[in-house]
Design goal:
The chain is 22% helix and 29% strand. The protein is α/β, with parallel strands linked by helices and 312 residues long. It folds into two domains: 179 residues, FAD/NAD(P)-binding domain (3-Layer(bba) Sandwich); 105 residues, FAD/NAD(P)-binding domain. The strands form five sheets. Strands 1, 2, 5, 6, 7, 8 and 19 form a seven-stranded mixed β-sheet that branches.
Length: 312
């Protein structure tokens, strides 16, 4: 058995969400000597949703936990292991070797890297938001929805995730308000239609939250109508925020080319600006953020890494 610290891997994958796990699956099939580094828990952002309805091959949807368990089993069968530690810094230590420093003070060496670190939820940045996290403010309806049985809650956002979470919350809450600053939602039409047919859900468009109010927990929000500029209070006990994502890429900001928001810029083969470094999933700049696209990008990234290694 090799000492993992002294070994030079063919490939290290950073992140173990759907993209990272799929990368591990393809790396195992290519028989690359591979390690996955994951800082928290396997599954990434999708563990914030209980079920995925649009993953191919699962009519009626698949529970997120089941999908992740299946992916883990697949990579374990191929001998790819996961180390639970956070990648803190990547540096070049030879012509074709990278060193990765981790939060537990270990150093790993590898000939190629796939970055699949995903993204985290953005905050609104309004008064009261930080103060009431865990006391009415949440970024995960699946985690906290059952706490709001028969209560009135607000969902902020206009994309698929916001509408999906609003529908989930409607199975617990008495009333769900979807607040969005534009005149129409960005969510897919089928999701919008479902939400409009749900009698518990109301829409407050062209509106934005100015502050979140309460004593010890959320009691109301101050709401601005962007057409009239009028400000009113709306009583609620929960505020669920789904206004986009921030890529988890700070640790490579001085190494790779990124856009102004920190998303890694890749080509069609998932190559980054760094030789032998590839990226996939929600940490990349792209137009469509879905589990299925992350998995497809991961397969492409590892195929590119395999070709890169073969040509070294």
């Amino acid at each position: 058995m090799h000492n993992k610290k002294d070994m030079v891997y063919d490939l290290i994958i950073i992140g173990a969400g759907p993209a990272g796990l799929t990368a591990g699956l393809y790396a195992g099939r290519y028989r690359l000597n591979t390690l996955i580094l994951e800082k928290l828990t396997v599954g990434g952002q999708i563990i914030l949703s209980s079920k995925i309805e649009n993953f191919p091959g699962f009519p009626g949807g698949v529970f997120t936990g089941e999908l992740i368990d299946r992916l883990i089993k697949q990579i374990e069968e191929l001998g790819v292991s996961i180390e639970y530690t956070e990648a803190k810094e990547i540096s070049k230590i030879g012509s074709y070797i990278y060193g990765i420093k981790t939060s537990d003070k270990k150093d790993y060496q590898t000939r190629s890297i796939v970055i699949a670190t995903g993204a985290t939820s953005k905050k609104l940045g309004v008064e009261g938001e930080d103060r009431f996290i865990g006391r009415g403010v949440s970024y995960c309806a699946i985690c906290d929805g059952p706490l709001f049985k028969d209560k009135e809650v607000i969902v902020v956002g206009g994309g698929d995730r916001a509408v999906e979470e609003a529908m989930f919350l409607s199975s617990y809450a008495r009333k769900v308000y979807i607040i969005h600053r534009r005149s129409e939602l960005r969510a897919s039409k089928i999701l919008q239609e479902r939400a409009q047919d749900n009698q518990k859900i109301s829409f407050l468009l062209e509106s934005q939250i100015e502050s979140i109010l309460g004593q010890d927990k959320v009691e109301a929000v101050s709401l601005k109508n962007l057409k009239s500029n009028s400000i009113n209070q709306l009583s609620c006990q929960g505020v669920f925020i789904f206004v986009g994502i921030k890529p988890n890429t700070d640790f490579v900001k001085n190494l790779l080319q990124m856009d102004e928001s920190g998303f890694i810029i890749v080509d069609q083969d998932m190559r980054t600006s760094g030789q032998g470094i590839f990226a996939c999933g929600d940490c990349c700049k792209k137009g469509f953020y879905q589990v299925i696209t992350a998995c497809g990008e991961a397969a492409t990234a590892v195929h590119s890494a395999y070709n890169y290694l073969r040509n070294l």
